[in-house]
Inverse folding.
C-alpha cells in the first residue's frame, strides 16, 4: 500500500536509468515540477531526450548502467525505465533495501514511489493513482475534470 504525498523536488538530484519513451514521459513530469538536477544514464539515448537535454541542461551519460550502490546513493529519486524488466527490478530491490526513492516502470509494486496523474490549478492539486494502472488513473482524471467542468 502506498502513502499519498506531495514532494518538493526542485533542488533534488534525480536519476533516470533508460532513455526511451517512458523515460521521456518521466523526465517531462520532473521538469513540470521544476526539477533542475536530472541525470540520464543509458547506452541508447532517444533523439527527444537529447534535444530536451540540450534545452534543459539535463546531464546525459551515454553508457550502459552498471548497478552500483554508491552511484544510486547520490540521488534523491531513481527511475528505473529501461526495457529490461530484470535490470529494473534489481535496481528497485537495491534502492528499496537502501531506503532510496525508486519508481520502477516494469512493476506495479516493486518500488517505493509511484507517479500519479494530477489535476491542478492555482488553488488546489488533486493527485490520482489507481494502484499502478495509469490508464485507469487517466480515465478517472477525465471524469473528475468533466464533473468540475475543468
Amino acid at each position: 500500500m502506498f502513502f499519498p504525498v506531495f514532494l518538493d523536488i526542485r533542488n533534488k538530484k534525480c536519476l533516470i536509468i533508460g532513455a526511451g519513451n517512458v523515460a521521456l514521459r518521466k523526465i517531462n513530469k520532473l521538469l513540470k515540477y521544476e526539477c533542475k538536477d536530472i541525470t540520464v544514464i543509458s547506452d541508447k539515448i532517444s533523439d527527444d531526450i537529447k534535444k530536451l537535454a540540450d534545452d534543459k541542461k539535463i546531464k546525459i551519460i551515454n553508457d550502459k548502467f552498471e548497478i552500483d550502490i554508491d552511484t544510486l546513493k547520490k540521488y534523491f529519486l531513481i527511475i528505473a525505465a529501461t526495457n529490461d524488466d530484470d535490470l529494473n527490478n534489481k535496481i528497485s530491490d537495491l534502492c528499496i533495501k537502501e531506503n532510496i526513492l525508486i519508481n520502477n516502470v516494469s512493476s506495479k509494486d516493486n518500488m517505493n514511489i509511484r507517479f500519479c496523474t494530477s489535476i491542478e490549478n492555482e488553488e488546489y492539486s488533486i493527485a490520482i493513482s489507481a494502484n499502478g494502472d495509469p490508464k485507469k488513473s487517466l480515465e478517472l482524471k477525465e471524469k473528475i475534470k468533466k464533473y468540475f467542468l475543468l
